[in-house]
Amino acid sequence: MARWRWTWLMVMAAFALFQVGTACRALSRVPEAGALPPPLWDGVAALAWSGMACVMLRLLWRGTGLRLLLRFLIGFSIYSVFRLFIFSQADYDRGRLSFLTMWLVGCVAAALVWNRYANRISNGVSSHDREPQD
């Protein structure tokens, strides 16, 4: 098994366990008036991300989930930034939003470029094989 697969398997396993811990902590909290995000919503979202991480683990174990892994990581990044954007109350969190938004835009752009490059490689088309356009 390739080294990158083992690395991503361990990252996804740690991510799934971390999300289960987040769900347990959120669901064991007593709901407070005006608490943002609501504990139930936070727990259900963490369990959903944990379930998706387990699906990614299975796909990576079979060796078929690399492209889907990229989409998963982008989706979680978008979720995290929007969650912070909606529910942040501290000035420290508000101060990080511009940096996190720029980081997210850069990551999505890099992922789109990488995905396009990966499609060309998997289709067997290189830049030298194309016919010149007039």
- Gross morphology is flat
**DSSP strand (E) fraction?**
under 5%
Biggest sheet architecture: none
Residue runs with pLDDT of under 50 for 5 or more positions: none
Tally the structural domains.
2
Class of secondary structure makeup = mainly alpha
Question: What's the number of helices?
Answer: 4
The gyration radius over C-alpha positions equals 19 Å
- Tell me the helix content: over 70%
Mean pLDDT: 79
Order of helices and strands: HHHH
Name a few traits of the molecule.
134 residues, mainly alpha, 78% helix, flat
Short description:
This protein is mainly alpha-helical and 134 residues long.
Please explain how this structure is put together.
The chain is mainly α. The chain has two domains: 1-64; 65-124. The protein is 78% helix and 0% strand. It has helices at 3-28, 39-62, 66-87, 91-122. The N and C termini lie far apart (45 Å).
What is the fold's blueprint, element by element?
Blueprint: H1 3-28, H2 39-62, H3 66-87, H4 91-122
